Amino acid sequence: MTGTAPRDVERVYSTADVVAKLRRLADALESETSFRIQIAGERFRVPARAQFSIEHERGDGEEEVEFQLKWKIEEADDDAEDSDETVV
């Protein structure tokens, strides 16, 4: 994945799609394994070593909660193995 273009997208999903993505994320975090996900048409692998954080923001009459995973691109490359796992 090295050499990929910068990207900053936000996509709204149905509740059922979010539940499926969060369920797979929780399973991967619990088992300390990587997982593949597709967001706004791009498929990629989140490595097992990704750092997970939860952010809360308040201002201008709004509140927001973000669940965030962060990793170095090299970590995803090191973790990449071809598998037949389902992409959500």
Automatic annotation (TrEMBL):
<dbReference type="Pfam" id="PF20068">
    <property type="entry name" value="Amphi-Trp"/>
</dbReference>
<dbReference type="InterPro" id="IPR027598">
    <property type="entry name" value="Amphi-Trp_dom"/>
</dbReference>
<feature type="domain" description="Amphi-Trp">
    <location>
        <begin position="9"/>
        <end position="79"/>
    </location>
</feature>
<protein>
    <submittedName>
        <fullName>Amphi-Trp domain-containing protein</fullName>
    </submittedName>
</protein>
